[in-house]
Design goal:
Structural class: mainly alpha
Number of domains: 1
Order of helices and strands: HHHHHHH
Number of strands: 0
Distance between the termini: 38 Å
Mean pLDDT: 85
Low-confidence stretches: 1-13
Shape: elongated
Largest sheet: none
């Protein structure tokens, strides 16, 4: 009984929202969802740009047996540029998404569950601080890792496999690995160096995605889920 008294006293000290404040929070939540939806659409735009440019490069490269494979290599520069733009947009999107999710987990979910609007101390202050001093909730590196894992992993893999396919089948089917390596040569750069650079290019993005995935998992376990924005 002695241990239960401080807990009850703390619960009774929590301020209840008035009807006007609940209405204002509802409008605020609706606004954050709208802003996150707008920025989610912008994320789809950069992904579409990447898919379209890769499709153009595939069409040019496989148009004829004598067509050069260089467009598939050069499109990697554009895909990397779009990836950086999308990561930047994701950081903005994550601000609005995190705020909406914070209200869902600390206001709406408790209200729907058992009627207690204050299951965690000072959750309103965390949200208010984010409005007073808005800042990104994820770094640029983490944003890029998340976008690679969810979208660009497949785009980059298709690019790399299409490039290898071009070397194998055009201008005539390769008779062995030596033919593939020889066809990969670009000017003074030997084929093995070009292929090694391509593998390093793809592997570095995959490594970044895996590193960010582990960081996210560790952060989720450390925070206990839903205890911080982002």
């Amino acid at each position: 009984m002695a241990q239960a008294q401080p807990r009850l006293a703390s619960a009774s000290a929590k301020r209840e929202f008035t009807q006007a404040e609940i209405g204002a929070l509802a409008h605020l939540y609706r606004g954050e969802v709208y802003r996150s939806t707008i920025w989610r659409t912008r994320l789809d735009t950069t992904t579409n740009w990447s898919v379209v440019t890769l499709g153009v490069a595939l069409s040019i490269t496989f148009a004829s047996p004598g067509a050069s494979e260089l467009p598939l290599l050069l499109v990697g520069v554009l895909i990397a540029l779009f990836m950086v733009l999308e990561a930047r947009r994701y950081r903005y999107f994550n601000v609005w998404r995190a705020r909406a999710r914070w209200m869902e987990t600390h206001f709406y979910a408790p209200m729907l569950d058992d009627g207690d609007l204050h299951t965690e101390e000072n959750w309103q202050k965390v949200l208010a601080k984010d409005y007073w001093r808005p800042e990104y909730h994820v770094s640029m590196t983490r944003a890029m890792g998340r976008r690679i894992r969810r979208n660009y992993l497949w785009i980059l893999s298709i690019q790399f496999l299409a490039y290898l396919g071009k070397l194998i089948v055009h201008p005539v089917p390769a008779s062995g690995i030596g033919d593939v390596v020889a066809r990969a040569a670009i000017g003074p750069a030997p084929g093995w160096l070009v292929l090694a650079f391509g593998g390093l290019y793809l592997g570095s993005w995959l490594g970044l995605a895996e590193w960010v995935r582990r960081r996210d998992s560790e952060s989720a376990r450390r925070k206990g889920g839903g205890r911080s924005l982002g």
